[in-house]
Design a protein that fits this description.
Mean pLDDT: 95
Number of strands: 7
Low-confidence stretches: none
CATH architecture of the largest domain: Alpha Horseshoe
Number of helices: 19
Order of helices and strands: HEHHEHEHEEEEHHHHHHHHHHHHHH
Number of domains: 2
Largest sheet: 5 strands, antiparallel
Helix content: 55-70%
Radius of gyration: 28 Å
CATH topology of the largest domain: Serine Threonine Protein Phosphatase 5, Tetratricopeptide repeat
Distance between the termini: 51 Å
CATH superfamily of the largest domain: Tetratricopeptide repeat domain
């Protein structure tokens, strides 16, 4: 079997022999490839990276299309009807489009999007790699037919080297539909949540480093400053967060989310009135944001202005009556005011809308424990643990409730589980 170096040498000979029908770009840089891999937390196959470092995408105009090249606008028509290999720009664009939609994945999929587009075919279908990579840092090439799912995306070639070898040898006229589906993309797929994106990591240091990197690469994108400020806020670095959000304001004082994130920081600095002023600025810039109104309601409740809080919650619910988070947020404010039955009513409504939310179920368990309905608290903890077996705080509440009921064997079992999870 040919090595990638041999395939690239053969492609170079072909390009030099027929430059009018072989269109390949200048090389990508190592930095470009490293940036793509880091930004999306993906791995590009070794052979594909070798190709990009020699030719950053391109295509061969096959014999059937050569006459069209001579017509006005012919090159665009030829590109549309050719098997085109993606360079870094096309890869990024298509990967973002697919991952934003979780294309062909369950809507509950979490983690890094595993399908990496490498080419578009003459009938405008995609060819893809799958992450994680397999043997020798490679991935097979699969036909990602848009009307099918990964269970039907057949394996075309065992590696990009084999694919490019055939593509070069047959002047771009190769089959892009697998003749059989003995192996499909589904056979190589990871489990959901197999690896988190940097920005969604549970490790806030990783998230912080990611947004610092994003600001270095894209210094004019105000969203990155906001996300960095919010991460610093979550880490308890409030003054640094405030400095970062002020940098965002300098970039774009008309961006409503800057004031939203600033309000959260000010709230943590115990400056509730300043937080309300900031969220008011956000609402003035975006009057349709329900999230902003919820946040203002929470601030009003903290300041003791319960009437204003009730008005904001009521307005948010009138606009979005099936939004579980509004009921959850209002329920939490009722709980803080020790209006336990009102809190339970709202939180149970939230669970009715989103029955699989451990966040909402856990808040109910907290309230049931607070009002000494230990059996009910245990029932809700059981539901949480069924959904999320390592939810340590649910075990903690359940252990306490078992002890209150004198069920010490069950409490000790939960204590052991807690120690195992720590």
């Amino acid at each position: 079997m040919e090595t990638m170096e041999e395939v690239l040498n053969r492609l170079e000979v072909k390009i030099n022999a027929d430059p009018e029908h072989c269109f390949f770009n200048n090389p990508a840089s190592e930095d470009e490839l490293n940036n793509i891999e880091y930004m999306y937390n993906i791995e590009l196959p070794k052979s594909y990276k070798q190709f990009l470092l020699k030719y950053n995408g391109g295509f061969i105009c096959n014999e059937a299309l050569k006459k069209i090249m001579l017509e006005p606008g012919g090159k665009e028509t030829v590109i549309w009807n050719s098997l085109v290999l993606y360079g870094t720009a096309e890869l990024e664009k298509h990967y973002e489009d697919l991952s934003d939609k979780n294309w062909k994945l369950d809507r509950n999929w979490k983690g890094v999007y595993p399908f990496i587009p490498l080419a578009s075919t003459s009938i405008n279908e995609l060819l893809i790699f799958v992450n994680p990579l397999v043997k020798d840092n490679e991935s097979p090439v699969f036909d990602a037919f848009h009307e099918d799912f990964p269970t039907g995306w057949g394996l075309l070639y065992d590696s990009f080297t084999e694919f490019l070898s055939a593509y070069t040898r047959f002047d771009g006229m190769i089959s892009t539909i697998a003749s059989d589906c003995l192996q499909t993309a589904d056979d190589f797929m990871p489990e959901s949540n197999w690896k988190s994106t940097h920005q969604n990591s549970d490790d806030l240091i990783e998230v912080k480093e990611y947004y610092i990197w994003m600001i270095e690469k894209f210094p004019d994108e105000v969203e990155n400053y906001c996300e960095l400020a919010d991460t610093l806020n979550q880490m308890g670095n409030y003054n640094e967060a405030l400095q970062t959000i002020e940098s965002a304001l300098e970039k774009d004082p008309r961006y409503s989310w800057v004031y939203y994130y600033k309000s959260k920081i000010l709230d943590n600095l115990k400056q509730t009135e300043a937080a309300i002023d900031s969220i008011n600025q956000a609402i003035n810039l975006n009057k349709n944001s329900v999230m902003f109104k919820i946040k203002r309601a929470e601030f009003h409740a903290k300041s003791g202005n319960y009437k204003a809080a009730e008005n904001d919650f009521a307005e948010a619910l009138s606009e979005n009556p099936d939004d579980a988070y509004i009921y959850y947020s209002r329920g939490k404010t009722y709980f803080e005011r020790k209006l336990f039955q009102d809190a339970l009513a709202d939180l149970q409504k939230a669970v009715e809308i989103e029955p699989g939310s451990t966040l909402y179920l856990f808040q109910i368990a907290i309230i049931q424990q607070e009002i000494k309905d230990y059996k009910a608290a245990i029932e809700y903890c059981n539901k949480i643990i069924d959904l999320e077996p390592d939810f340590i705080n649910a075990f903690m509440i359940r252990e306490n409730c078992y002890r209150k009921l004198g069920e010490f064997a069950e409490a000790d079992a939960d204590c052991n589980k807690i120690n195992a999870l720590l």
